[in-house]
Design a protein that fits this description.
Elements (H helix, E strand, L loop, with lengths): L2 H14 L3 H14 L4 H13 L3 H14 L4 H13 L3 H14 L4 H13 L3 H14 L4 H13 L3 H14 L4 H13 L3 H14 L4 H13 L3 H14 L4 H13 L3 H14 L9 H15 L1 H19 L3 H8 L14 H14 L4 H11 L3 H12 L7 H16 L6 H13 L10 H11 L4 H13 L6 H10 L18 H7 L21 E5 L2 E4 L18 E4 L2 E6 L2 E6 L8 E5 L4 E4 L22
Antiparallel strand pairs: 1-4, 2-3, 4-5, 5-6, 6-7
Helix pairs in contact: 1-2, 2-3, 3-4, 3-5, 4-5, 5-6, 6-7, 7-8, 7-9, 8-9, 9-10, 9-11, 10-11, 11-12, 12-13, 13-14, 14-15, 15-16, 16-17, 18-20, 19-20, 19-22, 20-22, 21-22, 21-23, 22-23, 23-24, 24-25, 25-26, 25-27, 26-27
Length: 618
Amino acid sequence: MTLFEESIAAAAKAVAGRDWATALGIWEAVAEQYPDRPEGFVGKGGALIELGRSTEAEQFLADAMGRFPDNLWSAVAYAQLSERARNWREALRRWEVVRDKFPDAAVGHVGVAAVLRELGEIDAAEAAFAGAVERFPTDVWAAHNYAEIAGRRADWAEALRRWEVVKQAFPDHAGAFVGTAAALRMLDRIEDADQLLAEADRRFPTNYWVAVDYARLAALQRRWDEAVRRWDRALQRFPDDATGHVEKTAALIEAGRLGEAEDFLKIVHERFPAEPRLAGFGLEIAAQRRAATRADMGRWHRQIRDELARLRAIAGEDHALLLRTIYRDVLSLDPANVPGTELLARSLAALGELLPERSVECVQLCEQLAASDIERIGILSSALRRTREDTTWLHYNLADALNRLVLSGQTVARAPCLLHCFLALMMHPTGGRENEPLPRSILARELAAFAPRDAIREGLESVLLGHAAPYSSIQAAAKQLYLLPHDSESPDEPDILHLKTIAQACGLPMMRDVRAVRRADAANVSEHTAFASEARALCVPSGDRDYYLFREAGKPFTLPTIQVYAIAGGTVSFDLSRRGRTEFHIFDSNDFCISDLSCGAIPFIAEQKIEVKAHSEF
């Protein structure tokens, strides 16, 4: 064997093992040592393509075609480059050049048909493959692609028939075994497919696709230990293949061999740091571990109680220390770093590893454990760091637990409580606004001195959503705005919904001075009626022209859905359709709107009576 032949054999071995870097080095040496032979140039171009260095490959293969204009394989490699770039129209043009320049070579005819197939022109592609089979009956790739395209049409019975023909005509073609097995699998003949691939694995130990499909078939059958064994065999033959490493990791996880999966994943990350298919495996391993732990409910609960006990042992009865640790990355709760903080952080991280990923399950867990408020805060705040779904109810329950700490005198819980109130209100649950009453009631209390107008708004919305009325908060806010005497004696349910007082407190136009309308007790409020969204033409109402300036007379607009509730002396509407705006409207017994706390025009609910009295009329 000459040195040239030895080099070609070494390069072919590297290509068979998909060791493209080694193959590239050999092909470069061949091209330099034998500049008058096309093999080195064609081989180097193919290796560059496989390594993803398409720009270099384009230039190099164009030069090779100029150097060897009569060489079929340089033209083939040049056409394949456009295929790899999925530039199908350019690929078709290049393959047509190959076919027309080398009409007696089957590869050009097959290449044109293959591109037609990728362009979705299945009938034209199948006719071209059939023509190639007829013209080149001894060409394996013409027969291979003619069988394969029947599968593209999902005609698996015909595909199987054609693959059997290929397998008989070309018994040493591994692709025929792979194609036949695929057709058998799609016809639900899984055992036959497995037996055929086992035979192919013995006959073609160096064929990559035989090894891959044989391992994948075990995974398809959910025979995970067998899939791992087959991937091990594949990786012994193709040690540099990223796909084998990725899919073996997945099989180890599915087999429940989590320790092995974690160790192997570290190796894979080191070898293929840019491999995108590895994303999520670490989370999946952690999730499988939590699921395995939760399978034994008693053991799982004991582990969580043990972690909670560790938290208590470190923090003692100092709830403030635990709260500072939990919220140190989002709130400045001085002192931020004191002895025990790092130990608590590690213990909280360990607790998080035991928690389920779904928010509702974390809330249910607190109930199952009969957790105290501070334990709930530890559990639910740890769950926030791990959950990948809607966190609304985590924030709601954290606000609830922190609020109880505030009421018990733990002032350090105030800032976290407000944080979770705002976050709960930011969410958009599909079931409505059931997450809002408690946070709004808390905000009404906490904002009464700091932002009284906002406190009144939050308190009113809380009342209308059915929460226990925060009358004292609204009263305190009204006093802060000097709307009520500071020394006044008020009943348990003060007449705080006097329309004049509310309008003044919110800084909105005074509309008329009317008698007080007391809000009915929340339990006695019933839905009176509801109007579906509709378009209707309304005139600009009389009243404050500046306030309604943007509304054009007679212009149709969409009236949002409004729920109307009965109260003493009239009705109350609450518009749920506009986030970020207070939509609170009170109508007297004659269906006149007598108070508006919205930030826009009133969406009137009475068609025949839409008058609003102007300032000048009283």
